[in-house]
Amino acid sequence: MSPEEEESVVTRFAPSPTGYLHLGHVRSASQGFAAARRAAGRFLLRIEDIDRTRCREEYAAAILEDLEWLGLCWDGPVRRQSEHFADYRGALDRLAGQGLLYPCFCTRREIAAEIARSGAAPQGKEGPLYPGTCRRLAAAERARRIAEGRDYALRLDVAGARVGPLDWIEECAAGDERRLAQPGLFGDVVLARKEFPASYHLAVTLDDAIQGVTLVTRGVDLAAATHIHRLLQALLGLPTPRYRHHALVTDTAGRRLAKRDHALSVRAMRAQGMTPAEVLAAARGE
Ligand code: GLU
User: Fold this and answer.
1) 3-40 burial by CB neighbour count: b if 16+ within 10 A, else e?
2) Range name among 112-121, 160-169, 184-193 with the lowest pLDDT average
3) How far is Cα 24 from Cα 35, in angstroms, rounded to an integer?
4) How far is it, in rounded angstroms, from Cα 125 to Cα 111?
5) Angle at 151 between CA 147 and CA 155, to 5 degrees
6) CB atoms < 10 A from the CB of 212, how many?
7) Longest C-alpha distance within the chain, in Å?
């Protein structure tokens, strides 16, 4: 990257307030923070609190406090997804205008039954893909079910999206790598439900663009999601940031840390008397 480009680096940390920050979060946040600081860029904070059933105000407050304690201070106002539902609605309308959204009335059980019945369901990153049952419903039948008040999710008709080959730049230890997007890996993803105005995929893609993010730094567990994010960027006319997916923090047995490992929350480490520098070193795996 040229020095001029580096000056404009905007990174972000985007935790969901469903628990206390743990070492994995600290690794993501500190990598984003360092990338922004190295380039005299900006490090933004976004609270991903769309899922009102799992997110708690107490955790959101603790995230801000822990980041400040670690010295990972963010630039500008915090974006809270729960305050921007109109943005997600606008993006859904745009996709609907392209004829790429359809209502899906299937319950989990019906999807599982359909997959078992068809025998040869295509496999995706997260198991068998949605078999497309509701994609094939006639318009009148859709209208009838909606009029009946049936619950539905909005799915993206991935195969119907007319886009050329899509790629993105992955920043790897050995240098930049061009990755070819395979949006079909997740099948027809759900982009919204009645109680969720936007799924993770839709909200994260739109928010990164709205916040002017140029470099996404996050754990490798979310790397595959980039395939679908790249498609959404193309469909919504959004710029594509660069991506850097880092290795996950593991415990001494090599197992990935989970939120249930309370002993490794920043809170718990603070309570044990660790300093911010020690917590940051532990997040680096030192
Ligand atoms: N909110 C997501 C999480 O906490 C991270 C989103 C992202 O970095 O793309 O796992």
Assistant:
1) eeeeeebbbbbbbbbebbbbbbbbbbbbbbbebbeebe
2) 112-121
3) 17
4) 17
5) 105
6) 13
7) 64
22 and 250 Cβ atoms separated by less than 8 Å: no
Which residues contact ligand 1 via a Cβ below 6 A? 14-16, 48, 204, 218, 222
DSSP state of 175: E
Q: What single-letter amino acid sits at 30?
A: S
247 — phi, psi (to 5°)? Answer: -60, 150
Pocket test for ligand 1, best of 23, 28, 218, 244 (most atoms within 8 A of CB): 218
What is the C-alpha separation between 216 and 14, in angstroms, rounded? 10
Residues 28-52 have pLDDT tens digits of 999 999 999 999 999 999 999 999 8
Phi, psi (rounded to 5 degrees) for 152: -150, 160
7 has a pLDDT exceeding 60: no
Per-residue pLDDT reduced to its tens digit, 13-22: 999 999 999 9
Tell me, in angstroms, the distance from the centre of ligand 1 to residue 193's CA: 19
Q: Nearest C-alpha to atom 7 of ligand 1 is from which residue?
A: 14
Closest C-alpha residue for ligand 1 atom 3: 15
Does pTM top 0.90 for this prediction? Answer: yes
Which residue CA neighbors atom 6 of ligand 1 most closely? Answer: 14
